[in-house]
Amino acid sequence: MSTRVFVAAAVVATLAAGAASAQEGNPFLGRQRFEEKRCTECHAVWGHGGRLGPEMSVAVAGKTFYELVGDFWNHTPQMIDRVSRLGEPWPALDPAEMADILSYLYYLRLFDEPGDAARGAQTYARLQCVSCHSLGRRGGTMGGALDRFSAYTSSTALAQAMWNAGPRMQQAQVRTGTPIPQFSGHDMADVQAFIRAEGQRPGRDVVLEPLPNPARGATVYRDKGCGACHDGAGRSAPDLARSTLSKTASEITGLLWDHSYAMGARMGAKGIRFPQFTGTEMADLIAHLYFLGYVGQEGDPKAGAAVFDSKGCASCHRDGGGAPNLAGLARRTDRAGLASAIWNHAPAMHRTMAERTSFWPKFEPGEMKNLAAYLEALAKGGAPAAGSQARGRTGAAR
Ligand code: HEC
Ligand code: HEC
Ligand code: HEC
Ligand code: HEC
């Protein structure tokens, strides 16, 4: 799996998306930048690269934007140390570069852990696929053979075919009194692993799927009219950013499937044709849905004010502290700009902090997001005070 994905990554590196906004970053460019900035000298991705720092696909993949920024911060002292011991300059990242690298790290988790064939066998039996489909010459005939899906390592080809055949499959299930299958958690990946193990096909070649592209997926989302029900203030269907938060690609695939019948009925009622997917459309759409959760939920500025104090940022960054006014920074820049400023100034901050204290504050998940919300509120002039710390207003100009 890992080698395959890496090869695919190399093949498709030229495919750089383009449509993503600067702030959200472009994972394909991020992959390039991760090499150009020589992060790979110390960090491996899927086993390729240096060993001085943690393996990225394990350490950070799938963390949301601000969790990643918090992670970057937490580990900077050791990184500064290592980089300077190698005699190299600190790799500065401008906002676009930062956005691209962060989105690349998030993107890595699109490739779930491979499913488990033994668990998949149980799921396949429980969902009664075998009564209508044949696999490795065993099973029913009503729905046709599933062997050809054994050439794929990810479950999206299977999911796409299931979706397209959904209305016909549902009729058969209703007719035969078979329950309509529901997928949760790892189910989808497990069934795919089972099909891979059991399916018969000529040769053992695998289909090299192009890397799912969230920017193209956004176009699919628009073209298939998903927004007609899911977007806007008067939406009649769940907010998908919320639904997909912290979900893996195979969980999202399962979610999409589980609701396909209910959605099909709604579409019929609205006169919208049940969409069909071809080529990489489903894979791209899932990548897009996966990225909806990237920025995470909104931070809480009030909690952020407390973070600003408790991490010691206030002691230097408040009036008279000698460090730049962060409200001004937040006014000039965006999310990615803030992340880039934190990263680029880390060595200088580390030096100053080492003179004053010997302690580098660590961020827990959620804290960086709240801190950013606080700085944004300051930038807009509406600074919420954190309890007793109200006196040291930071909103004023330096
Ligand atoms: C000279 C070696 C070196 C280079 C170059 C380097 N790092 Fe690191 N990095 C480390 C080490 C060592 C750690 C672990 C620090 C620790 O455990 O606190 C680390 C940790 C991290 C972490 C936190 C991982 C975790 O476990 O949560 C992130 C994120 C990270 N690096 C990103 C980057 C990026 C992005 C670049 C390129 C711009 C980069 N690093 C370049 C050595 C390096
Ligand atoms: C009650 C019978 C029934 C059950 C149970 C059933 N299916 Fe189907 N399935 C069908 C029918 C009928 C079709 C449509 C065949 C056609 O007309 O193309 C179909 C189509 C499909 C397709 C598209 C096939 C293709 O070649 O494009 C896939 C993939 C699929 N089913 C997977 C599954 C899986 C996985 C399960 C178990 C979770 C399952 N089905 C359970 C009846 C069933
Ligand atoms: C005609 C309206 C309509 C359209 C068009 C539509 N959906 Fe839905 N969608 C719904 C409704 C209603 C639900 C909730 C269904 C239920 O409760 O089972 C839903 C549920 C979902 C869910 C599960 C959400 C959750 O929180 O459980 C996902 C994921 C989803 N839709 C994705 C899509 C995608 C992707 C498209 C475009 C291909 C799309 N929808 C098009 C109406 C629609
Ligand atoms: C010991 C003093 C000190 C502490 C504590 C400190 N900083 Fe800094 N910070 C500085 C200094 C000094 C600079 C300017 C560094 C430079 O010029 O490169 C700076 C720069 C920055 C910048 C870039 C500002 C700009 O305008 O580009 C950001 C963002 C930042 N700090 C965030 C933080 C956060 C968040 C915390 C708390 C977790 C924090 N700092 C804690 C001293 C500190």
Chart the SSEs and their pairings:
Layout: H1 2-12, H2 27-36, E1 44-45, E2 48-49, H3 56-59, H4 65-85, H5 95-107, H6 117-126, E3 133-135, E4 138-139, E5 144-145, H7 156-176, H8 187-198, H9 214-223, H10 227-230, H11 240-243, H12 249-258, H13 260-270, H14 281-292, H15 301-310, H16 313-317, H17 326-332, H18 335-356, H19 367-379
Parallel strand pairs: 3-5
Antiparallel strand pairs: 1-2, 3-4
Helix pairs in contact: 2-5, 4-18, 4-19, 5-18, 6-8, 7-12, 9-14, 15-19, 17-19
One heme C binds next to helix 16, helix 17 and helix 18.
Write up what this structure looks like.
This protein is mostly helical. It has 3 domains: about 1-65 and about 90-110, no CATH class; about 115-290, no CATH class; about 300-390, no CATH class. It has helices at about 1-10, 25-35, 55-60, 65-85, 95-105, 115-125, 155-175, 185-200, 215-225, 225-230, 240-245, 250-260, 260-270, 280-290, 300-310, 315, 325-330, 335-355, 365-380; strands at about 45, 50, 135, 140, 145. The strands form 2 sheets. It has a 3-stranded mixed beta sheet, with no helix packed on it. Helix 2 (about 25-35) packs across helix 5 and helix 7 (about 155-175) packs parallel to helix 12. Bound molecules: heme C (4 copies). One heme C binds near residues 311, 315, 316, 329 and 361.
